[in-house]
Amino acid sequence: MQPYELTIAAASARIRERRLSPVELVDSVLGRIDRVEPHLGAYVAVAAEQARDAAREAEREIARGRYRGPLHGVPVGLKDLIDVAGSPTTASSRVRDGHRAAADSTVAARLRAAGAVLAGKTHTHEFAYGLTTPQTANAWDRERVAGGSSGGSAVAVAAGAATFALGTDTGGSIRVPAALNGVVGLKPTYGLVPRHGVTPLSWSLDHVGPITRTVEDAALVLAALAGHDPRDPASVAAPAVDYRPEREPDLTGVRVGVPVNHYVDHVDPEVAAAVHHAVARLEALGARPVEVEVPLARYLLPTLWGLVAPEASAYHARTLRTAPELYQADVRVLLEAGELIDAGDHLRAQRARTLIRDAWARVLEEVDVIAAPTVPTTAVRAGQETVTWPDGTSEGVADAYVRLCAPANVTGLPALTVPAGQDAAGLPIGLQLLGRPFDERTLLRVGHAYERTQPARALAPVV
């Protein structure tokens, strides 16, 4: 096994025991980037020399007995909305030409303090306002979409071009690409991970979280990221995230909610079957399935868009007027449309969110987690604009991908996507788990237990 194939947990154990040096790991990942990047386009920029310098420093620190923890010497890709001091934050847009960050974002500073090594900045759908990341190819089939908006981060992890990565999630932008590329994606509870220094899409819905190869790795990264920061007004002082995987998972007593609506409508039969099989695996581990009805389901997407659209347009108001030609057409149209939503509509969306959040809290009094598909279909072909369902209904690709992820953003609940097999074409399917606010521990426990029932996953065979 090559070092770039290692998970965080495996790599950190070898580094701690001096069986692998950070230099060897970083060189291996950089070599993998060189091989796969021409085929995938996951990175905006690769920081090869800086990464090698940081790896050598990590090696010296560890030799002196200053081991910082499981991320020390481990390479990470950061979605290019996340500021790193002295580096551009392009948001994958011409609008940001010439930009250079003056200081680290909170999450970049925390990763730096944990000893992680920046491999480079990964592509996003322009300003995170889309669900495909058109610059980037799916790690399993280059003719298909990567998913978005954190497509570059998910593809880099799936292909071994980063040991882990960070993404952002406003309507599914961590979970969608993670599911479509067969990796783990965690959207934490709203407010758990600070967003200071991260370019916003929608300030009341944005989250930052990890994309990794395993649930255990997601827990390791989350532990480094979480914690209050007064510079983010939404940041919450919550208890530390302390999850340690069980060697022999036992889910006895865990109540798993199985939706009877919303998550079963217009879902590909192969995806539905994979999720049904996953719930059966959880039941075999002792969990108790409980049927639940998703409350206020028909209001979820209108509420999401009623929040995202005006908030995104407000952020971009100045450049949309002075340099609209610098935006890609799809994003410019969305921003222009958002300007048509008045303050009353935005207030109504906020009121609807409160009602939805309260209704979901009542559901989660009856179950510990909810199990559902992450997305209703696997990765579509690049350029495909609609999905047609067996009943003849057509749905835009972006609407299809956001539909099942939206509840966790509207409510602020934590949500985890875990690979749950592949369809007949070999494309990954994602199982989504949603939990109570700030109960990431239960979410990670259930996700890890399910993951242990599956064969070890190989990296995407890009080349």
Characterize the overall form. globular
Instruction: Tell me the series of helices and strands, N- to C-terminal.
Output: HHEHEHEHEHEEHEHEHHHHEEEHHEEH
Strand order of the largest sheet: 1-3-2-4-6-5-12-13-9-7-8
CATH topology assignment: Amidase signature (AS) enzymes
Strand percentage, roughly?
A: 5-15%
What is the CATH superfamily classification?
Answer: Amidase signature (AS) domain
Task: Give an overview of the whole structure.
The protein has 463 residues and is α/β, with parallel strands linked by helices. The chain has one domain: Alpha-Beta Complex (Amidase signature (AS) enzymes). It is built from 15 helices and 13 strands. Strands 1-3-2-4-6-5-12-13-9-7-8 form an 11-stranded mixed β-sheet, with helices on both faces. It has a two-stranded antiparallel sheet with strand order 10-11. A hairpin with a 5-residue loop joins strand 10 and strand 11. Helix 2 runs antiparallel to helix 3, helix 7 runs antiparallel to helix 15 and helix 9 packs across helix 11. The longest helix is centred in the last third of the chain and has 21 residues. 56% of the residues are buried.
